[in-house]
């Protein structure tokens, strides 16, 4: 009698555990690709032509321009990610 109860409990546990493995097919999240323009690496910073004050000032302006363009591109990628995240929820 006791053996049949243990056998029934073991069979019940085995059937319960195998039920978890028989779920439906897995679903995959869609792959999102950010805009290619937002993924481009930042260009190298320009170097001054000489140590003269005029060249150094012109180089400072050129470096600032490259920095701001790269910052804007990076911010565009962040904005795209935020919008994409909100849409996927």
Provide a descriptive summary of the structure in words.
This protein is 66% helix and 0% strand. By secondary structure, it is mainly alpha-helical. The chain contains 3 helices and no strands. The chain has a domain at 36-89. It is rod-shaped and about 100 Å long.
Main traits of this protein?
mainly alpha; 89 residues; 3 helices
Question: What's the layout of helices and strands?
Answer:
Elements: H1 2-20, H2 36-39, H3 53-88
In short:
This protein has 89 residues and is mainly α. The protein has a domain at 36-89.
Distance between the termini: 55 Å
Radius of gyration: 31 Å
Count every helix, treating DSSP H or I runs of 4 or more residues as helices: 3
Residue windows where pLDDT falls under 50 for at least 5 positions: none
Shape: rod-shaped
Q: Count the E strands.
A: 0
Proportion of residues in helical segments? 55-70%
Question: Strand percentage, roughly?
Answer: under 5%
Based on helices, strands and strand pairing, what is the structural class? mainly alpha
Q: Sheet with the most strands?
A: none
Order of helices and strands: HHH
**Average residue-wise pLDDT:** 86
């Amino acid at each position: 009698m006791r053996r049949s109860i243990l056998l029934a409990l073991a069979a019940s546990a085995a059937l319960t555990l195998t039920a978890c493995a028989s779920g439906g097919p897995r679903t995959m999240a869609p792959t999102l690709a950010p805009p290619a323009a937002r993924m481009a690496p930042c260009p190298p910073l320009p170097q001054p032509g000489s140590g003269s004050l005029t060249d150094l000032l012109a180089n400072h302006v050129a470096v600032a321009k490259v920095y701001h363009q790269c910052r804007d591109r990076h911010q565009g990628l962040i904005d795209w990610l935020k919008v994409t995240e909100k849409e996927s929820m």
